[in-house]
Design a protein that fits this description.
The strands form 3 sheets. Strands 5-6-7-8-9 form a 5-stranded antiparallel β-sheet, with no helix packed on it. With about 210 residues, the chain is α+β, with helices and mostly antiparallel strands. The longest helix has 17 residues. It is built from 4 helices and 9 strands. Strand 1 and strand 2 form a beta hairpin. Helices cover about 25% and strands about 25% of the residues.
Length: about 210
């Protein structure tokens, strides 16, 4: 008894059956119909070309026609919709108006983040170090320590260190006490040789 193929159901006579031209023709017709339904190379290429040339080939994606100039921006104008904006228009949207901006080339390096015309030079660094050495040379090695303020529990919250000529060199202030009365912030204020001019402040945060 004859059988059929899986895909096109072509009739497959057995070896003990007589030759039947109608079976052969039927199989040929089925094959012809399937071949005609297949995409030709030329037809497939035409579809690819049409897809590439389309302005909006994928619904929901950004249209290629929006890109008409370099350095423009795409801004959402609604749900699933975009419009092109120039730099000036984007600045207006951001509330910057005609505010000026600085080109990246005006900075010394990306790591420094300092404008080239304000960048520290080696000469200025050397001058600062020389000035510091002069101030340091004029200070004294011996200091008189005095507690100048205490809290309600008698703990020192301000201590002054004075040079031999009674000028103030260093004042240490404790503040920001926690629930246990431990001070969490220590500020060290260093003064110039006149005892009045503040040179530097160093703040320490303590964690108990």
């Amino acid at each position: 008894m004859s059988t059929q193929t899986t895909n096109l159901q072509l009739v497959k006579p057995t070896v003990d059956e007589f030759y039947d031209i109608n079976i052969v023709n039927g199989n040929m017709d089925k094959i012809d119909v399937e071949v005609a339904a297949k995409e030709t190379p030329a037809g497939a290429q035409a579809k690819v070309d049409a897809h590439a040339a389309a302005d909006d080939p994928h619904t929901g994606y950004i249209k290629k026609s929006l890109a008409t100039a370099a350095n423009d921006f795409l801004v959402a104008s609604g749900a699933g919709a975009f419009v092109k904006k120039t730099l000036a228009e984007v600045k207006t949207i951001l509330g910057l108006g005609t505010a000026a901006y600085t080109n990246s080339t005006a900075y010394a390096t990306a790591e420094q983040g300092t404008k080239a015309d304000n960048a520290a030079t080696q000469a200025s660094v050397d001058a600062h170090l020389a000035e510091f050495a002069t101030v340091k040379a004029k200070t004294y090695t011996n200091y008189n320590m005095t507690v100048t303020a205490t809290d309600t529990n008698g703990k020192p919250i301000q201590t002054q260190y004075k040079r031999e000529d009674a000028t103030l060199y260093l004042q240490v202030d404790a503040s920001n006490a926690d629930a246990n009365g431990y001070y969490q912030t220590i500020a060290e204020r260093y003064y110039d040789i006149d005892g009045v001019t503040l040179l530097n402040t160093v703040t320490w945060t303590l964690v108990y």
